[in-house]
Amino acid sequence: MPTESIPDTSFHERRRTRLMKDPKFRAAYERATQEIEQTDRVIRALDELRIDLGVSKAELARRIN
To answer: Which of 47, 49, 51 is nearest to 39 (CA)?
Structure first.
């Protein structure tokens, strides 16, 4: 069984840290982060409703065509 390794994200972290010093980049990054979090909350809430109704993802897809 192969051992899973954690990817090296140090380059990304260093680059993001450098870019976050730019106020325009920081504002855009924070705005995008908020939008992603909001979208994620809506998707999770809809998924919970689907589960509460006992509808599978496949059945939901069929119903909405």
So the answer is: 47
Residue 1 has a pLDDT of 57
CB 36 within 8 A of CB 30: no
Contact 20, 29 (CB under 8 A): yes
What's the CA gap between 43 and 65, in Å, rounded? 18
How far, in Å, CA of 20 to CA of 8, rounded?
Answer: 20
Dist. CA 18–CA 39, nearest whole Å: 27
pLDDT tens-digit profile of 2-59? 667 888 889 999 999 999 999 999 999 999 999 999 999 999 999 999 999 999 999 9
Q: Where are the domains of the chain?
A: 23-64
First-to-last CA distance in the chain? 41
